[in-house]
Amino acid sequence: MEKESNQLTSEMSETLTSESATQDAIEKNDSNEAPDIRALNERIGKTSQFVDLLRMELGKVIIGQQTMVDRLLIGLLGNGHVLLEGVPGLAKTLAIKSLAETIDGDFSRLQFTPDLLPADLIGTMIYNQKSESFSVKKGPIFANFVLADEINRAPAKVQSALLEAMQERQVTIGPESYPLPEPFLVLATQNPVEQEGTYPLPEAQVDRFLLKVVIGYPTKTEEQQIVRANLASEGMAKPKVIIQPKDILQARQLVREIYLDEKIERYIVDLVFATRNPGEYGMGHLTQLISFGASPRASIGLGIASKAQAFLNHRGYVTPEDIRAVAMDVLRHRVGLTFEAEAENISSEQIITEIMDNVQVP
Question: N or C: which end of the chain has fewer CB within 10 A?
Answer without folding.
Answer: N
